[in-house]
Amino acid sequence: MSQYYPQPGPFYPPEQNPEDDDDYYYEDDFEYEYEDDEPESSANFFTRYALTCFTGGCLVFLCLACCGLFISGLWLFGDSLIAATPIPGSDIGLSFGDPAFPGDEVVNEQGVKLIVLDVNRDAALATIPAVEGRELIIITIELVNLGEAEVNFNETDFLLLNRFEEAYTPTPSTTVADINPLGRGVLPPGEGLEARLVFEVIADEFELVLTWDGGPESEPRYISLR
Predict the structure, then answer these.
(1) How many CB atoms lie within 10 A of CB 190?
(2) pLDDT, tens digit, 9 for 90 and up, residues 64-77
(3) Alpha-carbon distances of 35 from 25, 27, 86, 114, 212, rounded to whole Å
(4) 199 neighbors 212 (Cβ within 8 angstroms)
(5) What is the pTM of this model?
(6) In whole angstroms, what is the distance from residue 1 CA to residue 124 CA?
């Protein structure tokens, strides 16, 4: 007994546009995602919460500790840190072998600045008789008080050293009063003065160094006259 099968029509199977392949999917290629609907237990939730709080607390504690150490360091060592920055001129002329030179601004621990403005060798003064084999040296200096307190000055704070470090003392100001000698006195804060020192030395000593001793609170400073 024969069965009748209808013939497929000219439009069977329906044509598919290759560009529309993305609109179709196959069940074998479909990926299923399953969600775990099981709720998190209270014990795990509180454990995670406690760990988060503990970690945050540790970070806050470390930050506060660092800030505390920084502030303590400034309180304890702030003055020394500021003092570690030298005043310009305070680090020159510190030794006989490494002196400063005329024109240099030399500053001592009391905040007094010294500048050798001029050196007049083989000078002549009416009040000092000329002696054969000796010469007069007139040194013009400037002193400026950069500090906040009064400072004392005296011509005896200065000596003239030869290459053997033998010292010449300045001629007393009373002997050379007509050339504005340094003498002695008090220098107020923020003020300065210009004065002269007179030394009588052996002729032709050219390796001479002026030394300045500002007192027990200051180290000597050295200025070469070369």
Answers:
(1) 10
(2) 877 777 776 666 66
(3) 22, 20, 71, 87, 90
(4) no
(5) 0.63
(6) 159
Q: Which helix (H) or strand (E) holds 114?
A: strand 112-123
- Where do the domains of the chain lie, and which CATH numbers do they carry? 106-224 (2.60.40.1240)
CB 111, CB 153: distance < 8 Å: no
Tokens representing 104 are 């240099």
Give residue-wise pLDDT tens across range 63-114.
787 777 777 666 666 555 555 566 788 899 999 999 999 999 999 999 999 9
Distances in whole angstroms, Cα of residue 170 to Cα of each of 2, 83, 117, 191, 203: 150, 34, 17, 24, 16
Residue 120 CB contacts under 8 Å (≥ 6 apart), including other chains: 137, 138, 139, 140
- Could you tell me if 73 and 81 are in contact, meaning their C-beta atoms sit under 8 angstroms apart? no
pLDDT tier at 57, thresholds 50, 70, 90? confident
